[in-house]
Amino acid sequence: MSDLPVLQNPYIVIQTTQAPYSTSDATDSLEAALAATNIGMQVVYIFVGDGVYQLLKAQQSTLISHKSIYKKLSALPMFDVELIFAQTSALTTYHISLNDISFAVSPISDAQLVQICAKATQVLVF
Questions:
Q1: Which of 35, 81, 85, 124 makes the best surface tag, with the fewest CB within 10 Å?
Q2: Superfamily of 11-125 according to CATH
Q3: pLDDT tens per residue, the chain (126 residues)?
């Protein structure tokens, strides 16, 4: 694992932990990130546990009458959310490779996840 990025204070961590369409949590976490950047906060967005399923491009959300969360997530850098991570242990558990994801996501170990959260002003878990 590489070193952690230098983070400005204050920053918030948003952990998204749910599969994309099981609840509204995936959309809620995205909206929280956008709201935080609108007031000038630095956001660290982390896909944890089942949340890594949101990273898969091959989502057939129209079959359940939903818009694709993947397309919305891939736009995060346009809204100044540039520190986007995926929990390495979850990627391994669910057999997801960074090659399966077509936007910039960095792997993060469980130890790094703890470090980033410990220094954050707020940690929001969805």
A1: 35
A2: DsrEFH-like (3.40.1260.10)
A3: 456 677 777 899 999 999 887 788 999 999 999 999 999 999 999 999 999 999 987 666 555 566 778 778 888 999 999 999 999 999 999 999 988 887 899 999 999 999 999 999 999 999
